[in-house]
């Protein structure tokens, strides 16, 4: 029996191009099937085989392996059973017409890994059985030229030349970007969510009784709002209480407007009269009035001799304090929780936030108005 292995040519299947079979008498073609989306582990093999000098026709059995130049190492075989260039165990049945046959190596069999073509010299080894003479090795092994290496080159190009904006967030694994991969100083304040207790980038205060409008600065989506209600008025025999304290972090829209109301202090009063209550301090969305935060002003006593009712903070506040029943002598700057010494018959209320840290004081007077509320907004 005489079997002739044809010479080897190769071509590259281009992106989205249909595969055109090329059949030339006595020739064998290897092509790498390459698509735009993914490099398949497939080589298209077309060849011609003769038996005793005549083209074979019928169903033939074939075995395939990719080996090194001397045939002593196996890089791949159709059933993954070949080692050291040996004959694979199983066979592939193909239809042969006038000596011509074709097969997609790697399709419906072990796929060909692109790493095979990390080797500079890869050769195709074929065994054939005509059904009568048993398996025979077709010689010589055929060297694979450009086709197989196009598979490897395309895989490398995909990894090394990623187009701009091609990688979306969905393609990045969770926890894949670590601190070591982020250059120092590359993350700005605008890219950080505001956290209560963190360092703020801006602040606005309102300390005068009345109504104002606060506009959320550009790029700001969270603010922390602190409200102090105004203090009640008092006299020696008519106590008033301190305003309540409320603090809350709000999610906001840049450019949105909010109404700020700073409560007025309770008025002066005649001796032994009921202490006038201080005004409420509030922060309310202009577009959604139901979205509001309120700290009550200090409450007046129900009569000249009784204690006032405690002022209430906003129920939705993250941190809240009821107003002390009497006036307070504040130690240092006012900050939550309030550090105060209640003293009956001394209800002049200090609600000032002193950013410089100077000490605030309270004193007892025959008749005084309560002090205004206060609003501090940070972002």
Automatic annotation (TrEMBL):
A Pfam family that the UniProt record links to this protein: Gly_rich_2
Disordered, as annotated region: 276-315
> Which residues belong to any copy of the Glycine-rich domain?
208-303
Annotated InterPro entries: Gly_rich_dom
Could you tell me where the Polar residues compositional bias lies? Answer: 278-295
- Output this protein's name: Glycine-rich domain-containing protein
**What organism does this protein naturally occur in?**
Brevifollis gellanilyticus
